[in-house]
Batch of 3 targets.
Target 1
Amino acid sequence: MLLKTDKIPYLFTVLLAMFAWTTNQLSLELGKSPTIEISSKKYIKDTKSIEYLLTNISNSVVYKDIVFSVKLEIDACNGTPRIELGPPNMKGIETEKSTCENKKTASFHLAQFHPGSKVKLVTPVDLTVNSELYVRSNTAVRIIEFSVESFVIKYKVLLLAWLFGFWLFLIGIYLIAVNKGWFTDEK
């Protein structure tokens, strides 16, 4: 017998508490950093455009007067780029019209970018081309692609609920094992 049967629930609880605390601390620490996530980047054949979907995953940072630039590998910017704002963002008077600065760069000026909101940058192009996203801001900002880091920041409550459900599952297995007599020395 490796462990006394009356100590197993305590072990489950201590392990859950350790994982929950670690998840919470990690999420809080990562959430302090001003971060914008590139939620998706894709080429749309129907509209011949490159779309970046950006999410402000910072907990409390409102970016003001931020400019995004999509730099293309070759001369391909064709037409008028546009910015699609998700709630709670609103197009303000200060928001400038998006433009192709030259055939290689599309610029998007955003007056405010609120926590938890999304922005879609649409750049019309002549053909499929590689692109990079750049940012110009008065405050420090990190731009990251979807990763474990951004997942922990965005879904902290879901992770903690999952850990609690897993703890309930383990306690249920333990209770079934005790009722079936799996921990007794009788053979």
Target 2
Amino acid sequence: MKQKQSQSSTKALQTDGRDSSLSKSKGTDLEKTEAQVKWQLSTYVRSDQIASDKLEELERVGIQGAMNGLSISKARRFDEKLTKGIVSLALSRAFSFYGVDSLQMLSIMVDVIMQAWGRVWRLDDVILMIQMGMTGKFGKQYGKFNGSIMNEWCMMYDAIRTDICVELAQSYGQGVADVSERTVERHNGPKEIAQWTDEQLERIKHIDNEIKTVK
């Protein structure tokens, strides 16, 4: 009887030891991932601006290359503030380029991108989308630049991105989670995202008149 109790105790200690080792291993892996993500985030910013070498890299690799960047959702898990800051800096480039001065509009558009596109997009996607819009890839910009136009840029960029994803998936002959999710969203549209974005656009319309355009 005592021998059985001793064997049970030994097994329990061995199990506890394995659980403890697994817990430490998971903790170490999480710390490594966090350190890696924070290092990646640091490469996006130089002197309170999007790093010039990042812009040059994205010009070279295009949308297909941007899809390999750090995902917004992953970045947010480890540093929400810095992730939003990078998105804000990316959008600020367009606002400055078109002479628009509205912190309220900027804040709303950061929220729109983080919520409506952040589940699938990478940070590189946001930066490249802005660059493409500023260089006329989505058509010439006439009149006042505003949040509605920015949202159109997002939708046009995402349409191109989705087509590239589908082509890649077909060429490799396998499914891509990123492709299937975004394709369904583009054609059917999750109600919660569609409604949320509409609400944001209504807010944008109300404050468009408050935007100060630098002459």
Target 3
Amino acid sequence: MSRAWSRTLNRLRWRYRWVLDAAGLSLLLTTALVAVYASYRWFGQDFRGYYAAARLVLVGGNPYDYSQLAPLLFQLDGRVGNNPFYYAPWWALAFTPFAIAIPYSAARVVWLTISLLLGFGALVLTQRVLGWRIRGGGRWLAYWTALFLLGWICLRYEQSGIFLLAVLAVLLWALQQDKDWLAGLALPLLLTKPNATFVPVAVITAVFWFRGHRRALLWAGIALLGLLLVSTLAIPGWYEPILGDELPNGLTQVLDGPQRVTGIRINTTLLDWLQGFGISKSIGWGVWGIVVLLSLWLLIWAWRREVHTVYLVALAVALGFIISPYTLQYDYPMLALALFWVYWKLPQVPAKQRWVGLAILAFLFGVLLWEGPISDGYWIVLGLGGLMLWLGWPRPAATTPVGAES
């Protein structure tokens, strides 16, 4: 009787796990599809800039010249909007197949679908590079929270943050597999948006040099030179508006065409976050300088204690967002690396510390529900960066699961 009862319990347990697994996957897929539909139907913003830049390249124009770009933006949907081109030149080249073969409305659907697939693959790979062994409903719930906290805003604005997360995940996986050529080829792609990636790129470059991956640095140099060469051949003089004074200041102003300012832009940065508390910009710059020095010290602290590469890069991503003078909340998908590390670490700490960590996470998830200006999203990077430091500080060497390779 006891054996039969035991077999019955085992069958029920497996059925229960299957139900949870199916429910979690259904929740993730449904939320993702709703997010894509909502972005296409009611939101969307920045893909129009990519598409127009690609069309301009095809007719021999310079996407960094806003006076050339503005008419093509207007042709898409009857408005110019705040879409000057501020990305690496190869980003415009990457969208030329869209501009050649796919009408604008259909191209938006294709881009959102690609972003969704890249996001799912990036989360799978992020979990793998962490060596975080979680399966079933718990895994889908973790993916869903990453989509909610970090992915939704990126999809809403049709931005590049999910692509950057995928590149970062591939790079870290390649390092663990000793595929230095692949890690090296991935590194320059992170410079597609250097304002969001300059700190992790610097740290990864140091990892390449000092932790036995110098071939990856060679491949990175070759790839970067290749990208710049192809970009210069395809867009002669692309850098001239950047070096001159023609590039519009859409980083701090809201534009609706060349020489047409409609407002002051608020970003998800320390300066704008402090201004939300009534702190003047002059004082804010002083605080920013102190935070930069503190961030540099924390990276040196982590490096000298030879922490795991994955933890080091995740910390660099968080600190990069903390000190960057220009980022927005839609750049945050790369923080999935920090979020998953926190998920892995919390069950290992004492109960009181765990409950405090869970309370902080609950607060961060609530930010999307109550935030007003986009600068409120800065709480997210502060919280995740703080959790990484707090949970990793007592034992800096024990910062990655046993299953992950350095």
